[in-house]
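Task 17 of the worksheet. Students: predict the tertiary structure of the chain below and write it out as structure tokens. Keep your answer in the requested format; marks are given for formatting as well as content.
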Amino acid sequence: MIADIAGWATEGKLNIITGIPLAVCETEKVAGLITISPMDMLPLFRRDGTGPGSVRLQRIKPEAREDWLFVTEPDDGVEVSIADLLISGPDVLRFEDEYDLLRRIGGGAGALSPYDWEGMYVAMIQRIHEHGLPATQADLIAELQEWFATVSETGEVPDESTIRRRLRPFWRALRRET
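Model answer:
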């Protein structure tokens, strides 16, 4: 799985980020959040587990920049281990939506859900019919979480990602039509 993430990053589908201490790139001082070139970290992701525990980055892209900077201090670059690597939340959500990674196959017998999904669909349809589609999927999810809080006998509310998985096909279809 982690090698797949590296592959997706190599193809430009995800950005791998991390935080670094102070480094100098020629005359510019850089610290904090950076993007890492996937090719610079590829050895960390060997499927057979023989990769190194860390790499030394010679080029970095600070958060607010579009271009790569070359590390001049420390001379041997900035050390980053696999445990230091991150993918931003918005990047993950965009990737999940774009590639439909969390789609579940329905059907079959299983445990009953503690949530009223059919009621949620009715509430969603009523909301869209009466007020139109919200500006963002996150806005609709927040409204539906409020709906669950109102109708739940136990006070349980599904988390955002669970609601997002159920809304995704509707959201995509409606967004294409608007």
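Marker's comment: The longest helix spans residues 160-177. The chain is about 40% helix and 20% strand.
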